[in-house]
Amino acid sequence: MTSDIVKLGALCWNQYTDWPSLREAGIRADQLGVDSLWTWDHLYPIVGDHEGPIFEGWLTLAAWAEATSSATVGLMVGANTFRNPALVAKQATTLDHISGGRAVLGIGGAWFETEHRGLGIEFGASPGERLRWLEEAAQIMRGMLHGERPSGSRYYSADEALNLPAPLHPVPLLIGGGGEKRTLRIVARYADACNLGGGFDNVKRKDEILRRHCEEVGRDESEIERTVGVGTCIIRDDPAEAQRVFEAMFERNGKARLWKDQLVGTPEQVAEKLRPFAGIGFRHMIVGFPSPYDAESMERLVTEVKPALEVEASVAAS
After folding, report:
1. Strand intervals (E) in the chain
2. pTM, whole model, 2 decimals?
3. What is the CATH topology of the domain spanning 7-66+73-80+170-317?
């Protein structure tokens, strides 16, 4: 947790777009040098009007894996309710081979009831039930990714699940969500990485709770990579112009209500908003890029904002 390395992830929204644009956004991000490339695992749009276009996540990742060469690829995060966890482990392993060892298995309990109801996918009776499913799923997926032969116990009927060929490299299991009693304890037991969001104060509090869970279950908290979702980003030299582009972008995405406190402004203003996260060890920052995937913002985030953060992190670590 004392590394001076800052990593940037590009979360390219797979809603309200066409396939050539989404494909090109992933290629551009990889060529610019982002460290990780992500999309959502949703079947209806989740920002703006849900009755709009969206592409399926796993197939998007497979196509990106063929078209890119450096960034890791994963879902931010997969909906555990959508698929059998043993199948997900096989999908992640296949993605690892397609990408040459760059896959990440992101998973969470799922929350968007509308898409489950509309498409006939079982949603569970409560968040607690979905988290019970997630805990057993995480145990199965982690076991399969580590060359074990795990079995289900209560909710899944996997019986000594076999995963061959093995991944090219250990596929990290990233668990998203900040539930303080259950989700973060599942992270402490099974995850190689976590993802939190909701602003700096919320992330700081959740991280302190995660550390306590790690202590209770006997896990070295430094084994878990901290990633943080930091919202969307529009960078311009003129803050007013950045705001105009930001508003147009959300209008394009199903006439969505504007998100507050986003990374909108000059490179210096964006860096200032990101600095506190690096200061508490969240040095893998995942930035959302909605359609139309603003090229200037993506480039300046990598070439201007990231170097500024790395210099400061290096000084802090020395």
Report:
1. 7-12, 36-39, 72-75, 78-79, 105-108, 173-176, 193-196, 225-235, 263-265, 284-289
2. 0.94
3. TIM Barrel (3.20.20)
